[in-house]
Amino acid sequence: MTSVNIDAHVHWAGNGSSGGGSWIRLSGPHRFLARFMLHQIQMPGDALSGDFDRIYTDRLLAWIRESSVRRVVLLAHDEVYHSDGRRMEGVGSFYVPNDEVLTRARAHPEFLPAVSIHPARADALDELERCAEAGAVMMKCLPNCHNIDCNDPRYRKFWERMAALRLPLLAHTGGEHTVPVVRAEFSDPRILRLPLECGVTVIAAHCATRSGWSDPDYFPHFVEMLQRYPRLYGDTSAFNLPARGAHARECLRPGIQERLIHGSDFPVPIQGLWAWARGIISFRDYWRCRGIRNAIERDFQLKKAMGFDAAHFTRVGSLLRVGTA
Ligand SMILES: [Zn+2]
User: Fold this and answer.
1) Ligand 1 centroid distance, CA of 38 (Å)
2) Would the pLDDT of 325 be above 60?
């Protein structure tokens, strides 16, 4: 899998219409944002109350097949828990059980399943074993939205088991505005020290860049940590949103670029205007990419135009757990 182009950060979302137990619960600005996302991936606005699961999956598969990437890491999304293992009721805006991505990956080789397990769950270790056995290639979480203090010593066993299973951790870092934030201070990449010290390969999603202009900028901490932790990587997901791409030029530097992997953050609405305004891509490339309606391909072409080399798109293949399923 080390020579194929992979998009390592693609969300699955569902309203439960296929019976898998997923849900989407939107309120306030998140409702508006969700409609905007659906619009940009050309899904009907009323899909949320209809056959959403099938339409979303079909849209994604069609775009992968028409794109330069062969496979995408498809992300589950756990519920929010207190650190003592009790579920936090009414907090999350969406939920994707692990079986939703495991099942779809079995049916479609384009999908590589990334499961999501809150380490405080009473069944966290059992679920980890079960998912690894079922072919999970990665574990995904958003410490600031899921309420996970990764440095909490109670989670040591969980990280040690992940390291033994060679299951990498994709952890959101930096601010977040599309999913409600429970603990803003957990956006800091230094929250990932314990899993790294336990031997887990960790990918800091978004390289700890800002989501909104008022978020703290943790990118310098991420860069410092790259020196210290050889198992730390970053992904370039959502770099084509206004604030996230602020450090894109630095990410192309030797010493940083070799530690980064490609991800689009589908279905987050990305475009090249910001990269052009920062002088990273030409107007010609901006205009060309603007005409690509396939969001998976558009992000791939933008990253290429930004100067990310061929290895950027294949690197994650060497980090993923090669499953037993
Ligand atoms: Zn994401």
Assistant:
1) 15
2) no
> How far does residue 265's CA lie from ligand 1's centre (Å)?
5
- Within-domain flag for 107: yes
Would 1 be classed as within a structural domain? no
pLDDT digits (tens, 9 = 90+) for 68-107: 999 999 999 999 999 999 999 988 889 999 999 999 999 9
> Treating both helix axes as pointing N-terminal to C-terminal, what angle do 295-306 and 283-290 enclose, rounded to 10 degrees?
170
Q: Is residue 325 part of a domain?
A: no
Per-residue pLDDT tens for 116-137?
999 999 999 999 999 999 999 9
Peptide bond into 267 cis (omega under 30): yes
CATH of the domain at 284: 3.20.20.140
Q: CA-based Rg of the chain, rounded to a whole angstrom?
A: 18
Per residue, the 3-state secondary structure of 200-258, as one string, reads CCEEEEHHHCCCCCCCCCCHHHHHHHHHHCCCEEEECCCCCCCCHHHHHHHHCCCCCHH
Nearest to 240 by CA among 206, 213, 275: 275
pTM over 0.85: yes
CA of 9 to the centre of ligand 1 (A): 6
Is 324 contained in some domain? no
Strand-pair category, 23-24 with 94-95:
antiparallel
Give the pairing of strands 111-115 and 169-172. Answer: unpaired
pLDDT in tens, 46-62: 888 889 999 999 999 99
Is-contact 189 216, C-beta < 8 A? Answer: no
Domain span at residue 136 reads 6-318
Q: What pLDDT does 29 receive?
A: 73
Surrounding ion ligand 1 within 5 Å at CB are: 265
Domain count, the chain: 1
